[in-house]
Design a protein that fits this description.
mainly alpha, 2 domains, 9 helices, 65% helix, 0% strand
Length: 158
């Protein structure tokens, strides 16, 4: 196989893209807030991230919804973590409650330490270890976060 063949094969390999989720899948949102966010035009997690980049934007959302900015800050953090495909909406709440607030922070987190925190949370919540994300799962979260944060720094995607 020649160089041109390899380059063609490699060009067909897509890079890791951030995940975008329907706003209804974001954990911790009551039906009332899901409806309110949809009413404001936030149909996806990307919409929420794009319109909640700054403290002023998040405060404006909180004011329009008549709630404390802490709620909006949490939703934006969850949406940001859900960009990591292996984390998604399934685990973004777990990651946030384990003390990791962004993909950038996740990319710098030690696998063993984060897994222990996730295990502690899981056992506290469900009173058992079964069903807890594995070390391999946590490693995938971290590796994907590294890939996303590296590619977003080089491309500065909005």
């Amino acid at each position: 196989m020649g160089l041109d063949d390899w380059q063609q094969k490699l060009s067909g390999i897509s890079r890791l893209e951030p995940s975008n989720w329907p706003i209804e899948q974001l954990p911790g949102l009551s039906d009332e807030y899901k409806t309110a966010l949809l009413g404001l035009g936030f149909k996806t997690t990307f919409h929420l991230l794009q319109n909640g980049r700054t403290a002023e934007q998040r405060q404006a959302i909180a004011t329009r919804l008549q709630l404390h900015i802490q709620h909006v800050n949490k939703w934006v953090a969850l949406a940001n973590l859900a960009r990591v495909p292996a984390v998604g909406c399934k685990y973004c709440g777990t990651v946030l409650h384990a003390g990791v607030a962004s993909p950038q922070q996740l990319a710098q987190t030690d696998v063993a330490r984060l897994h222990q925190q996730v295990l502690n949370l899981h056992v506290a919540e469900f009173q058992r270890k079964e069903g807890c994300p594995t070390v391999a799962d946590v490693s995938a979260w971290i590796n994907e976060a590294k890939t996303l944060t590296t590619s977003s720094q080089s491309s500065q995607r909005p």
